[in-house]
Design goal:
GO terms for molecular function: ATP binding; hydrolase activity; transmembrane transporter activity. One of its GO terms (cellular component) is plasma membrane. By secondary structure, this protein is α+β, with helices and mostly antiparallel strands. The chain has 13 helices and ten strands.
């Protein structure tokens, strides 16, 4: 009986192609919009998480200069000299719960290899930056603590730098000039990509901190300090310890403003992830409204169909069709319309998501969960909005139905 009803439903769709297409249009748009918008939301979430991966194991970042007051502009890190490598060492030695600390001194320099040159960011740092920033080597090795102590002229370069200076040639062991100083390339980083702050670790060079301070400008300060915690549960307490330690080291009087800024990035990362998850859910809910509109369209068409086929219903009842038989037939017809529209909508949504991703304007992620959810909702909508027309048809009295003109 069920499959017979399915065949009758498909025959009805084929007999009224335009009406069927217009009825399914709401479901197609609804399901397609849900899949496309949710894929955009998930793609945005993935891109944010990829960018935040730059922080690696970084939980706290300390920058020189006081935090900007509302409506004001914070001083550039390089224009305020308040943090030193000794501050970083003190944090590592004296603050409980700190696993690793990496001070950084950055600057823009021209790199030269033979007849090629490239302008990029050079970052002086310590070995702990490898773990904190989750750096991976494609070839060669990172510099050591001994290199830092000896102010060794060794450098680790990113993929973009390697491609532009060396092409297909292996950079490891080659000499490059940074500014006016010769360095030996000890390693090449694996591709890392864009950072949360808009930088690019592929287009960067890492050298020992002491080397950068002594041989690239004679600077004694650092631009920032990265800190990695052993236990995130005491992160707020650790942040307070760092603040108190630096205030004491910088001899700041009570009531005097901090000359540094401590940022809890672990909490920020969670807030950003929660925001992107909320955005994905919001986009899905907005698109789901069109599914509701599509369901109302199905109910309207099914009511029209019941009215048009009143005499047919009367004949079937006169021939012995029961309440359940009529109910099943019209419910199946509503389900066929909604499921067919849902399947076409899935195809349209997936194609739209791939089309948007191919333009490069947005990043999309196609996953089975929203597809299955959209299909399931279309099934439920067909069932829910088909009940009233089906019940109305099943309750028709045979005599009244046969008399209907």
């Amino acid at each position: 009986m069920f499959w017979e009803s399915v065949i009758i439903a498909f025959n009805g769709l084929m007999a009224n192609k335009l009406r069927a297409a217009l009825t399914m249009l709401g479901m197609i748009i609804g399901v397609g919009a849900v899949i496309a918008l949710v894929s955009i939301g998930m793609g945005t979430q993935k891109r944010v998480e990829q960018n935040l991966a730059y922080l690696g194991g970084t939980n706290i970042i300390i920058r020189p200069g006081a935090a900007a007051a509302p409506g004001s502009v914070r001083s550039a890190a390089g224009s305020v000299i308040t943090l030193t490598a000794r501050d970083a060492q003190a944090i590592a030695d004296e603050v409980p719960g700190v696993a690793r600390v990496a001070p950084e001194l950055t600057g823009s320099y021209q790199l030269v290899y033979e007849n090629r040159n490239w302008n990029t960011i050079v970052e002086g740092t310590t070995v702990d930056a490898v773990e904190i920033q989750d750096l991976t080597l494609a070839s060669g090795c990172f510099f050591s603590d001994e290199d830092d102590a000896a102010r060794a002229k060794v450098a680790v370069i990113g993929q973009t730098v390697a491609n532009n200076l060396f092409g297909t040639e292996s950079p490891v062991g080659q000499n490059i000039r940074i500014g006016s100083t010769q360095f030996i390339v000890s390693g090449v980083l694996a591709s890392k990509g864009q950072t949360a702050g808009g930088g690019d670790l592929d287009d960067a060079v890492f050298v020992p901190l002491a080397t950068a301070q002594d041989r690239l400008g004679g600077k004694t300060y650092v631009n920032l300090i990265l800190a990695q915690m052993e236990n995130l549960q005491v992160l707020d307490q650790t942040e307070e310890y760092i603040t108190q330690l630096l205030r004491a080291r910088h001899k700041l009087a009570d009531g005097e403003a901090d000359d540094f800024t401590v940022r809890n990035y672990a909490a920020l990362v969670e807030k950003i992830k929660e925001s992107t998850r909320s955005m994905t859910l919001y986009l899905g809910n907005v698109a789901a409204i069109s599914l509701l509109v599509g369901g109302i369209g199905i109910m309207n068409i099914m009511l029209v169909s019941v009215t048009e086929r009143t005499k047919e219903i009367g004949i079937r009842k006169a021939l012995g069709a029961t309440y359940a038989n009529i109910m099943l037939q019209f419910l199946v017809e509503a389900l066929v319309v909604s499921v067919t529209g849902g399947l076409i909508g899935i195809l349209a949504g997936v194609l739209a998501a791939y089309g948007l991703a191919s333009t490069g304007a947005v990043q999309t992620v196609i996953s089975p969960e929203p597809i299955l959810a959209a299909f399931g909702i279309s099934l439920l909508i067909g069932l829910f909005f088909g009940i009233y027309p089906a019940r109305k048809a099943a309750l028709l009295a045979p005599i009244d139905a046969l008399r209907y003109e």
